[in-house]
Amino acid sequence: MPKSAKITGIKSVCCYTIQEAADITGVSERTVRAWIKGGLPAMTQERPTLIRGDTLIAFIKAQRSARKTLVGPDQFFCLKCRDARKPASGLVDCEVTGERAKLTAICGVCDTIMHKPVAHTQVPMLSKVFDLTIRDEARTVKGVVVE
Predict the structure, then answer these.
(1) Number of neighbouring beta carbons within 10 Å of residue 70
(2) Which candidate, 19, 17, 25, places its Cα nearest to that of 51?
(3) How many Cα neighbours within 13 Å face the side chain of 64?
(4) Which CATH number fits domain 15-67: 3.40.50, 1.10.10, 1.10.1660, 3.40.1130?
(5) How many C-beta neighbours within 10 Å does residue 21 have?
């Protein structure tokens, strides 16, 4: 089973039984029943229980948007904290390869290593925000963009 439900096959004008909703979204029947207990509107007065396609799509999209975390330009997403965090002491390493740059820092809360991909054009702006150590393919320069 996938980690997140699929919405591509759900038709908004159809009604689905719990088994059909589970099959079309790629989750188990137990998950669909938990969604119903957690607020998914369903027609439970009659048997079989029916779920409208449009409400199923809206419920899954609302779940996805609730899990998103906005990360600012001066923050990283820490996988251990599951939140946007600033790097410890503002120290960030930057590895430039071609058109991309990879920022690496340590979480200021839990000391976990965090990564963030950025475009190489953003490196000069980020060097003003962070104490940035830039590693290019050829050499390492502290606080200066390598051209």
Answers:
(1) 7
(2) 17
(3) 11
(4) 1.10.1660
(5) 26
Contact present, 118 and 76 (Cβ < 8 Å) = no
- Domains of the chain, residue spans: 15-67, 76-142
pLDDT tens digits along 104-116: 999 988 989 999 8
pLDDT digits 0-9 by tens, 67-82:
888 888 888 998 898 8
**Tokens 């088994």 belong to residue:** 19
Annotate the chain with three-state secondary structure: CCCCCCCCCCCCCCEEEHHHHHHHHCCCHHHHHHHHHCCCCCECCCCCCEEEHHHHHHHHHHHHHHHCCCCCCCCEEECCCCEEECEEEEEEEEEEECCEEEEEEEECCCCCEEEEEEEHHHHHHHHHHCEEEEECCCCEEECCCCC
Handedness of CA 71, 75, 76, 80 (dihedral sign): negative
Query: Cα separation of 54 and 117, whole Å?
Result: 36
